[in-house]
Specification:
Layout lengths: L1 H15 L12 H7 L16 H10 L4 E5 L5 H9 L4 E5 L3 H14 L4 E4 L14 E7 L20 H13 L2 E7 L18 H15 L1 E11 L6 E6 L1 H4 L5 H9 L12 E6 L2
Parallel strand pairs: 1-2, 1-4, 2-3, 4-5
Antiparallel strand pairs: 5-8, 6-7, 6-8
Helix pairs in contact: 1-5, 6-7
The chain binds S-adenosylmethionine.
């Protein structure tokens, strides 16, 4: 326990070095209990626990053992997978060195040995360099291209689509599957939309164009809905065929989201993708 106490002191100091996404993610329950600390996030606005069942289900269904988490933040997903999937090999990639160090310390607390952390940027230059993986998480990173990384390659919104196709194509040569989520405001700036906030069908069409041009097949798309007491938001997974239903995608999605799922974050689908070979 002495070791955990020392790690907790280090973690407190690191968490204090607040950055843009400093206390973005919750701690997995097991680590929260061991460390007697937790970060509360408003899960009706955005959440980690709410998205995790989709991630865990897709990894289990496809027997994915080696997982790369791009933009791992403070490691909620990487650490949860390390705990839940026996024999898994995890690489957490996080540009922010303070966050990367936090993940390393948390992995120590969890006793996860097959766990690697890198602070190498997942930019165009390096996206193919992380090694081979059964699956990658690429969640809420790509729309920051041109702001947080690859500034010169994405000078404006118009350059985004072509850049994204090239970037994801390179990524597909080293990972078999990918769980992908993106924001539809460039750089997270709502004055710079890639697709309008309430244009749900536009977001679907935009992402299908992106994935098609990048050589990824869509195996499923997870859409948020109101959850229950335990999780305020839950996801249903659909095939592409199902969401292109007779009612027309826009109307169907509008009805689906309605007043229940109001946050912009939960209007970002989770895409379950397989690299075409
Ligand atoms: C918006 S947060 C998303 C976190 C997490 N993937 C999620 O969906 O909850 C973006 C995270 O990615 C990191 N990041 C941004 N650009 C990156 C890059 N080029 N390589 C690695 N990490 C990056 C940021 O430091 C931040 O922690």
């Amino acid at each position: 326990m002495q070791a955990t106490k020392e790690i907790k002191e280090q973690l407190n100091e690191l968490y204090e070095r607040a950055s843009k996404h400093g206390q973005y993610q919750t701690l997995p329950d097991k680590l929260a209990t061991a460390l007697e600390m937790q970060f509360e996030v408003n899960e009706e606005w955005r959440g980690d626990r709410t998205r995790y069942p989709v991630i865990k289900g897709y990894l289990a269904k496809n027997k994915c053992n080696s997982v790369l988490d791009i933009g791992a933040n403070t490691g909620y997903f990487s650490l949860s997978i390390a705990d839940d999937i026996e024999g898994s090999q995890i690489t957490a990639c996080e540009l922010n060195k303070t966050h990367a160090r936090i993940i390393e310390l948390l992995a120590k607390v969890g006793g996860y040995n097959e766990f690697r952390v890198t602070d190498r940027s997942a930019n165009m230059e390096h996206i193919g360099d992380f090694g081979k993986f059964d699956c990658a998480l690429h969640l809420n990173i790509l729309h920051h291209a041109g702001h947080d990384f690859d500034k010169e390659l994405v000078p404006d919104r118009e350059a985004f689509m072509q850049y994204g196709k090239k970037y994801l194509k390179m990524f597909g040569s080293s990972v078999d599957r990918m769980i992908f989520q993106m924001g539809y405001n460039w750089g997270g700036d709502k004055t710079l939309p890639l697709v309008g906030r309430d244009d749900q069908a536009g977001k679907i069409a935009f992402t299908l164009d992106l994935m098609d041009g990048a050589g990824w097949e869509i195996e499923g798309v997870a859409l948020a809905k109101k959850g229950d007491k335990d999780l305020p938001i839950a996801y249903d997974v659909y095939s592409l065929h199902e969401i292109k239903g007779e009612k027309g995608t826009q109307k169907w999605l509008e009805e689906r989201y309605g007043a229940d799922v109001w946050s912009e974050f939960y209007q970002r689908p989770l895409w379950l993708c397989k690299a075409k070979r």
